[in-house]
């Protein structure tokens, strides 16, 4: 009994030792402060003071350590080293030695560090927990040892600096931790079982590292073989496209392709002192598995540009691989304000997003790049940049002038511009420069888009963006319906007040609001002696002769589906593109295309487009047409598209979405388009019909919204907003650009409607002299930047009621004295 009482007293003394609890509390406070500032990111200029707090805590704890009696020091040195570890990572925000670590490595480091604190109490643990503690100590030795080796190139600099600047002690903290863990095993864990578990804890991480390195090596070799084989084949497509068709998507492949871009290796010129030659538009990442594997694998033989294009296509990395003139690693999106106007009876919407972006670095100026995904048929119609606290509106000009001005000012003169540029795939990129250290910049972008129609429902979809870190970013959203919607459905976190929906949550990229389609309001908009009208689009089929069926085959198809279409063709020849030639579709010719990650069907190789039916089903990925520039494939396609008399090809889409390649061609009105299932193939072939082509130079169809916008000479009452004209202009320009239209006439139309197109961009420069120097002038007779305050729409019933009430009140005030005199 006495022994038990002494045992319990010993446990109590260790658990409630005031000195140790003080150190432990200090560690916990530092950990919470670091976690909070790392998760929510400190405001610009606060990173260095926060580091000073962590460093001072560690230094004070170290000084107090030597005042403790020896019998009270147990476990305290571990706490001090962990305080210095937190200080290391806090300093890393200002003086980067490590890139942003992966989540798995952060979790592992936190686990082994917490386990280090448990050594003080391990003698009271059951044997199983003691073994677990020993195992994690072995893992800790590997983790801390790796960090020590990673920082090895810093030692020659840090040793002399240690005498002059105490800060360089941070370089040696991982090494000291490694030695500390080994000493714990030698002095405190004499039992053989514990040492075996410690050895196992060291061995298993090393086995994982070796296995990953072997897999990384194999994948690098395989990618080199695929790329070199495609180079030797000399096809019409670039070798990187052929390789992307065959490369498997996976975690290791992604890391192999990003080695040297997102990941860098130590103990070389790409180590802690050097950055990769080309920076991706995403933070550099520190993944120990990749870092080690890169040092024991052959070099990837794909050139830089081919690797970037392969990543763009296969891994949807177009935002990350955009060319940038300045870095952006320290940028953080701070605030988003979204304002939406919806016209339910016009199937139109206008969205403005105001975004604040901050630079958490103390000194560096950086370039912010955002990529916005627009709805099909949507177009950017406004851009503003705040300069010296004042909102400056953009000017629309040709893409060449805007790019020249931006590159010159950003790359050479380092002053204030912003640029929005059209990209294929319904995306645009916005660039803002400079975002100076410890400063915040604001810009605002607006885009006009049709509402998505699906049966009796209309849907407004938020336009998500990619850019500097957006985790835990506050966003205010206000959605205003310009007439009362019927049976609207919005996310639960929205609050409704009449026709207004609002929310104040963190940024949510994907959300939508749906409501019933009431039918179209008879509305029009007039400008420069032209009237733009709106009417519903309902697909109508007309007779169509089909002499041959072509299958656009890739991994989204099955052999059974292909055989069904061949059977439905009813004796008509069915062809498939094998990658080298157009061949009759059978099991032999279909085998290879069915393995492709995506397909690029050469529509320009169809001999008789007028009597052909192209049946497609896409995986959702592919290069854009512009990314094939310079290849024989692109040259042949461009010559084919430039023929004004070229008939449209009938395209039947069996999949959930078109590939970016087919979307680009669809935007240029290469196809007459229908969407459905396999049964529709039989229906269309048996009936000899297909959707009619009703588009003309004065009429565009936006089938996503089931609407037709027409243009005719004349003027009328402006009962619709100017967004009607903007949508017509954009879709007409895309329609005409690939069909031999003169660019000058299309640029003039874009400038009149103030829309961003493949030919035009919006740009904000700092001074009028900058605009004059680059020959950028605002078109006097144009719609200018769109605005949520723009006029043009017919008043709604409640607005008419308010207007009538105001008029009656004014009449009453004016004529009341006259009435009183006449009745006196």
UniProtKB/TrEMBL annotation:
It holds the Pfam family VIT. Keywords: Membrane, Transmembrane, Transmembrane helix. InterPro entries: Sorted_by_XrtN, VIT. The chain crosses the membrane at residues 20-36, 48-68, 75-92, 104-121, 133-153, 159-184, 196-216. The keyword Phosphoprotein does not apply. It comes from the Bacteria. Residues 319-449 form the VIT domain. This is XrtN system VIT domain-containing protein. It comes from Chitinophaga lutea.
């Amino acid at each position: 009994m006495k022994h038990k009482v002494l045992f319990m007293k010993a446990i109590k003394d260790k658990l409630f030792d005031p000195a140790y609890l003080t150190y432990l509390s200090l560690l916990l406070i530092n950990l919470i402060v670091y976690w909070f500032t790392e998760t929510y990111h400190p405001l610009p200029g606060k990173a260095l003071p926060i580091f000073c707090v962590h460093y001072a805590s560690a230094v004070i704890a170290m000084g107090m350590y030597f005042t403790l009696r020896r019998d009270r020091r147990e476990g305290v040195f571990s706490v001090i080293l962990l305080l210095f570890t937190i200080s290391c990572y806090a300093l890393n925000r200002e003086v980067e030695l490590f890139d942003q670590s992966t989540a798995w490595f952060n979790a592992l480091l936190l686990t082994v560090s917490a386990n280090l604190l448990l050594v003080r109490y391990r003698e009271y643990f059951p044997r199983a927990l003691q073994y677990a503690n020993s195992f994690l100590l072995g893992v800790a030795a590997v983790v801390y040892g790796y960090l020590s080796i990673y920082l090895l190139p810093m030692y020659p600099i840090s040793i002399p600096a240690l005498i002059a600047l105490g800060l360089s002690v941070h370089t040696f903290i991982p090494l000291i931790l490694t030695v500390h863990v080994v000493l714990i095993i030698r002095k405190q864990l004499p039992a053989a079982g514990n040492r075996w578990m410690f050895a196992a804890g060291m061995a298993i991480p090393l086995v994982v590292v070796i296995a990953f390195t072997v897999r990384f090596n194999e994948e690098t070799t395989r990618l080199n073989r695929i790329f070199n084989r495609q180079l030797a084949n000399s096809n019409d497509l670039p070798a990187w496209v052929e390789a992307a068709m065959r490369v498997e998507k996976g975690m290791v492949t992604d890391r192999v392709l990003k080695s040297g871009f997102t990941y860098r290796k130590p103990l070389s010129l790409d180590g802690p002192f050097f950055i990769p030659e080309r920076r991706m538009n995403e933070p550099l990442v520190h993944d120990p598995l990749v870092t080690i594997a890169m040092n024991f694998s052959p070099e990837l033989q794909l050139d830089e540009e081919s690797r970037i294009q392969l990543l763009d296509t296969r891994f949807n990395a177009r935002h990350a691989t955009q060319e940038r003139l300045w870095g952006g690693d320290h940028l953080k999106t701070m605030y988003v304000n979204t304002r939406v106007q919806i016209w339910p009876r016009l199937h139109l919407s206008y969205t403005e997003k105001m975004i604040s972006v901050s630079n958490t670095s103390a000194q560096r100026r950086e370039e912010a790049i955002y990529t916005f995904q627009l709805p099909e048929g949507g177009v950017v119609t406004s851009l503003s940049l705040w300069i010296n606290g004042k909102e400056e509106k953009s000017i629309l000009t040709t893409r060449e002038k805007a790019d020249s001005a931006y590159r010159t000012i950003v790359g050479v003169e380092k002053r204030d511009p912003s640029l929005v540029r059209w990209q294929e795939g319904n995306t645009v990129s916005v660039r803002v420069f400079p975002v100076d250290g410890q400063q915040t910049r604001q810009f605002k972008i607006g885009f006009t888009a049709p509402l998505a129609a699906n049966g009796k429902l209309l849907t407004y979809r938020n336009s998500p963006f990619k850019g500097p870190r957006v985790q835990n970013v506050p966003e205010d959203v206000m959605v205003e319906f310009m007439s009362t919607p019927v049976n609207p459905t919005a996310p639960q976190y929205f609050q409704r007040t009449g026709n207004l929906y609002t929310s104040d949550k963190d940024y949510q990229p994907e959300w939508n609001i749906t409501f019933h389609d009431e039918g179209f309001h008879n509305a029009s908009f007039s400008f420069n002696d032209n009237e733009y009208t709106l009417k519903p689009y309902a697909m109508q089929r007309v007779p169509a002769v089909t002499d041959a069926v072509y299958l656009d085959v890739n991994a989204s198809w099955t052999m059974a589906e292909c055989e069904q279409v061949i059977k439905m063709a009813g004796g008509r020849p069915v062809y498939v593109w094998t990658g080298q030639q157009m061949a009759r579709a059978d099991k032999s010719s279909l085998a290879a295309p069915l393995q492709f990650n995506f397909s690029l069907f050469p529509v320009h190789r169809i001999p008789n487009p007028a009597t052909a039916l192209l049946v497609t089903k896409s995986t959702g990925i592919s290069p854009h047409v512009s990314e094939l520039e310079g290849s024989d494939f692109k040259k042949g396609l461009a010559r084919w598209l430039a023929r004004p008399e070229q008939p449209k090809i009938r395209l039947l889409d069996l999949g959930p979405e078109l590939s970016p390649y087919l979307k680009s061609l669809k935007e240029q009105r290469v196809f007459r388009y229908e969407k459905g299932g396999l049964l529709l193939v039989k229906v269309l072939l048996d009936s000899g019909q297909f959707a009619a082509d009703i588009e003309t130079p004065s009429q565009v169809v936006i089938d996503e919204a089931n609407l037709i916008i027409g243009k005719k000479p004349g003027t009328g009452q402006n009962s619709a907003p100017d967004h009607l004209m903007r949508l017509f202009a954009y879709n007409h320009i895309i329609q005409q650009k690939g069909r031999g239209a003169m660019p000058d006439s299309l640029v003039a139309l874009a400038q009149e409607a103030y829309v961003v197109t493949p030919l035009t961009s919006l740009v904000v420069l700092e001074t009028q002299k900058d605009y004059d120097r680059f020959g950028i002038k605002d078109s006097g007779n144009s719609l200018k930047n769109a605005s949520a305050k723009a006029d043009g729409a017919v008043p709604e019933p409640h607005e008419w009621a308010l207007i009538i009430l105001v008029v009656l009140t004014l009449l009453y005030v004016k004529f009341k004295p006259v009435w009183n005199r006449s009745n006196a």
